[in-house]
Amino acid sequence: MTVSRSWLRSLLPLVGALTLQARAETLPLPPSDVDLIGQVKVVTARHEDTLLDIARRGGLGYTEIKMANRGIDPWMPGEGTQVVLPTQHILPMAPREGIVINIPEMRLYYYLPARAGVPQVETYPISIGRYDWRTPLGVTQITQKIANPSWTPPESIRIEHAARGDILPPVVPAGPDNPLGQFALRLGVPGYLIHGTNKPYGIGMRVTHGCLRLYPEDIATLFNQVTPGVKVNFVSQPYKIGQAFGVTYLEVHHPLKEEKGRKEGALGEIARLLANRGVATADVDWVAVRRELAKPTGIPVPITQPDESMLLDVSRKAEDTLATGR
Question: Which residues are the active-site residues?
Fold first, then answer.
């Protein structure tokens, strides 16, 4: 395993209260046999903050910051409250190329083309389709980039809005009232877009008609980096297994409501995922697994003890890497 200096530094823990920061970082991509990126952070809430404010500054959506901070009032966390930012992730089980969207996690991963030999990944919170307007699964691609898009709402959406007394015009022009925001990426699946929003407080929720919404600042960054033809892979992985430094981790999110029976079969699914990674059932802390399933945090938690020989080998390589700068 080749150990990247920048990747090692990206995993160094941030302990204690931190100054509230803006947005997520572009992270170095770990070696192919390692699955963790980022680090969990802790910030101190200000008097005027809601969890939504803190989530946006930390590159998170509403559901994931709420899961990681059970018992904290999302609208009035209170000045001085320590808020956990679940900004460490297990990469989805999918080829590390193009865009990968894990729907139940409500998160997008973009694998940037390698620059100066250093592969990188960006990750953004998203909103996904409601139960009755599901976001599709499968592989497609970006077919068109549209700046300042207009929106032509389908007849079904106009009828839905009219039932609430909200009469939509046939075409909503670009501007502050356009729900697509300032940028849109058209997908090969007809009718579906990755786009911005004029309602950023909805990021991290199931609120769309099937499209993917990003914070305005995030879609601006992504829009400037991608090109038509980039692969987009939609997956559904509420239970993610990852490995790093000889330890196996589990990250749990709520399964999609429409995937009936998946929650009830979670232990079996996790056992199969572990078997596929060569992890022996006897080595797993099933108490930790059940605890995370009962109250998901969306944070990778260790469920095995470290392999001491692998840990020593990685430690030696890490010391050499940090010492030499390579």
Answer: 195, 211
